[in-house]
Specification:
mainly alpha
Length: 313
């Protein structure tokens, strides 16, 4: 009996020490800004809806033959616009009716997406590259370089965007997609240059940039390895929202007769305006498609901005 008591008094502290021993804590995986943004975007219904719409539009752009077999430029005067749309015949050439030249409105709707999307993406790429480089150089070097480039931005920013683009396009008899992209990009880079300049001025004061300078890193390495990756967030947001604006601008120029010489939503809206009293569908369906496209890119940009903005967390 005494031995059992002694054993209890000896083993009790060991058990208490074992229970009190700290358990290993599982290290949590640290997510970056982009990782946190992706987690927020996956739960954002606006982002999901806009992404699905944009994916559908891109599919229509690259594979229009999957959606219609009709020729958008072939006109059959026996199928006049007074022949109303056959809404029960889904995805057929007569589904959305015909225009005043006997061309399928549905086919032109499908093939018109290619022109608008191509101009929107092309202009966004040009604006992002030109505006990003100008803003990066101005913000990083400062001084006289910043003053000269900032005044250049102010000059272009003072020119009305659409008015300046119309003047440039009016001098080209043949307005292809490249001509329209160049004209829109020539006047549209100023906003993104200002955004990049402000982001670079903030980022170049960071410790990792100062450490790279102290270690003797070259200027291109500092700009493209350390500063550029940390200033992409506001640039992506502005570029995404601007993409929808450029698509709307292309349609506006085409509506005024200064846009693309070919199948375009803006051209169809302009042609349908002359027959709006007797054949509203010629103007209605391209307008709806254009509105959905512009709204999809603007909603995507808003969702990305909210996900990348730390103030909204």
């Amino acid at each position: 009996m005494p031995d059992m008591t002694k054993s209890e008094t000896v083993t009790a502290p060991d058990t208490a020490v074992a229970d009190a021993a700290p358990q290993p804590v599982k290290a949590e995986k640290v997510r970056s800004l982009w990782g946190d943004a992706w987690q927020d975007l996956r739960r954002n219904k606006i982002f999901i809806v806009s992404a699905i719409l944009i994916l559908l539009l891109l599919t229509i752009t690259f594979f229009p033959g999957w959606f219609t077999s009709a020729n958008p430029t072939y006109g059959d005067l026996s199928k006049h616009f007074l022949q109303k749309p056959q809404l029960g015949k889904l995805f057929s050439p007569e589904w959305l009716g015909y225009d005043q030249q006997g061309r399928s409105v549905y086919a032109r709707l499908i093939y018109g997406a290619r022109a608008s999307i191509a101009v929107g993406f092309g202009t966004t790429i040009v604006v992002t590259v030109v505006g990003g480089l100008v803003g990066m150089i101005a913000g990083y070097f400062g001084g006289i370089v910043d003053s000269i480039l900032s005044r250049l931005v102010d000059v272009f920013f003072g020119i009305p965007f659409l008015l300046g683009t119309m003047v440039v396009l009016n001098s080209f008899p043949e307005r292809t997609a490249w001509v329209v992209i160049g004209a829109l990009g020539f006047f549209g880079w100023t906003q993104l240059a200002r955004v990049m300049r402000g982001a670079v001025i903030t980022t170049k004061q960071s410790d990792y940039v100062q450490a790279a300078k102290a270690l003797g890193a070259s200027t291109p390495r500092i700009l493209f390895r350390h500063i550029l990756p940390n200033t992409l967030a506001p640039v992506i947001v502005v570029a995404t929202i601007s993409l929808g604006v450029y698509i709307g601008s292309e349609a506006t120029l085409s509506f005024l007769g200064l846009g693309l010489n070919g199948v375009s939503w803006g051209n169809d809206i302009s042609d349908g305006g002359n027959q709006i009293r007797v054949a509203q569908w010629i103007m209605l369906y391209p307008s709806i498609m254009l509105t959905i496209t512009v709204l999809a890119f603007i909603m995507l940009g808003e969702a990305v901005r909210n996900a990348l903005d730390p103030k909204t967390r």
